[in-house]
Design goal:
By secondary structure, the chain is of the alpha/beta class. The chain folds into two domains: 164 residues, 3-Layer(aba) Sandwich (Rossmann fold), CATH 3.40.50; 70 residues, Hypothetical Protein Ta0175, Chain: A, domain 2 (Alpha-Beta Complex). The chain has nine helices and eleven strands. It binds alpha-D-glucopyranose and magnesium ion.
Length: 252
């Protein structure tokens, strides 16, 4: 067996079925000890909401955590973010000017202050109006010359991020930093903010069986042999996918 880079979303992907997660944890932790596999969590949560989850669930200590939909990277449990990553987020990012545009949309309700950061402006946006409003917001930002990533997920969250930030770009950054080939990298997710990890189609992807329609529909329209839609939910779906791609030997 050879090492691989394992990167997973937390809510409703790794976390959601405690028994299956414990089973997956055992496999991953053994693989890390024996072969040097790396474990990364990639979440929409802020560092403080991530800490909250750590106190609630028996998660393994990851080699890195990507927080705020790709706007922060922390290694080995450190609370100091990777400065190099910020170099990639700065170009073209003008958060104040983004907010001047979003203020014009009364239907955008800002998320709590804790979920905002220098590289992330986050809102609640009703799923019923999102399909109409998102293109308008995007057009208004473009008209101001602002190049950003708009990430809609969970049928309620809108994250506006620098052009250089999302979960997929953070994954590629870590993969290159640690020298993992795309085919030795596997990303797991369940919702719209995970889509960027599946987008290039070069890395392996596992979509858990309980994935939201916003991700599942995209997968149906853009199938790839490198992406696996699991039948099982949450961590059980991840295990199913890791077996499918041969990252783990599950029957022996
Ligand atoms: C998490 C974050 C929130 C973000 C959402 C979707 O819930 O707390 O700020 O909008 O993930 O990415
Ligand atoms: Mg999720």
């Amino acid at each position: 067996m050879a090492p691989f880079l394992f990167i997973t979303d937390l809510d409703h992907t790794l976390v959601g079925d405690d028994d299956a997660m414990m089973q997956l944890n055992q496999h991953l932790s053994r693989h890390r000890d024996e072969y040097g596999t790396k474990i990364v969590y990639s979440t929409g949560r802020s560092p403080s909401l991530y800490q909250e989850l750590l106190s609630e669930k028996p998660l393994l200590s990851p080699d890195a955590v990507v927080t705020g939909v790709g706007t922060g990277i922390y290694y080995d449990g450190s609370t100091v973010p990777d400065r190099l990553w910020y170099d990639q987020l700065n170009p073209g990012w003008q958060r104040d000017r983004v907010l001047a545009v979003t203020n014009l949309f009364a239907d955008l309700e800002p998320q709590p202050e804790d979920e905002q950061n220098d590289y992330k402006a986050s809102f609640f946006l009703d799923a019923a109006i999102a399909p109409d409003l998102l293109p308008q917001i995007e057009a208004s930002l473009r008209a101001e010359g602002l190049q950003v990533n708009l990430v809609y997920s969970g049928g309620e969250h809108l994250d506006i991020l620098p052009q250089g930030a999302n979960k997929g770009l953070a994954m590629v950054f870590l993969r290159q930093q640690w020298n993992f080939a795309p085919e030795r990298t596997v990303a797991c997710g369940d919702s719209g903010n995970d889509l960027s990890m599946f987008h290039s189609g070069a890395e392996r992807g596992i979509i858990v069986g309980n994935a939201m329609a916003e991700l599942r529909d995209w997968h149906d329209e853009n199938p790839s042999p490198n992406r696996y839609l699991a039948t099982s939910h949450c961590a059980a779906g991840i295990l199913e996918g890791l077996g499918y791609f041969g990252f783990l030997q599950l029957n022996g």
